[in-house]
Specification:
Blueprint lengths: L3 E4 L2 E3 L5 E7 L8 E7 L6 E7 L4 E3 L7 E6 L4 E6 L8 E7 L2 E2 L3 E5 L2
Parallel strand pairs: 2-11
Antiparallel strand pairs: 1-3, 3-8, 4-5, 4-9, 5-6, 7-8, 9-10, 9-11
């Protein structure tokens, strides 16, 4: 069974950077979309960034210009580079490959 393993979460001060990674435990025959979602306490899960197999990207308005999604096809891995972090970015971040979800990694932005 495919399992997605996330890493890179943690604590950052406002204005800082973090890089999230998400790797599939085994090969997925065809990954048509990789994405990052997040869920803050008391809020619904929301799409942060997505990257299709053709290279098309989509970002939430709140992260445009600050976050970058990228992939390493050889490693079945997706990354989320997060710069200029804000307290509002605090949430559990989940990766998603097609219909498979990761377990989530906590990102906290605070002094």
């Amino acid at each position: 069974q495919v399992r997605l393993v996330e890493s890179g979460g943690g604590l950052s001060q406002p204005g800082g950077s973090l890089r999230l990674s998400c790797a599939a435990s085994e090969g997925i025959p065809y990954i048509y979309i990789m994405a990052w979602y997040r869920q803050a306490p008391g809020k619904q899960r929301e799409l942060v960034a997505a990257l299709t197999s053709s290279g098309t990207t989509n970002y939430a308005d709140s992260v445009k210009g600050r976050f970058t999604i990228s992939r390493d096809n050889a490693k079945n891995t997706v990354y989320l580079q997060m710069n200029s972090l804000k307290p509002d970015d605090t949430a559990v971040y989940y990766c998603k490959f097609n219909l498979f979800w990761g377990q989530g990694t906590q990102v906290t932005v605070s002094f």
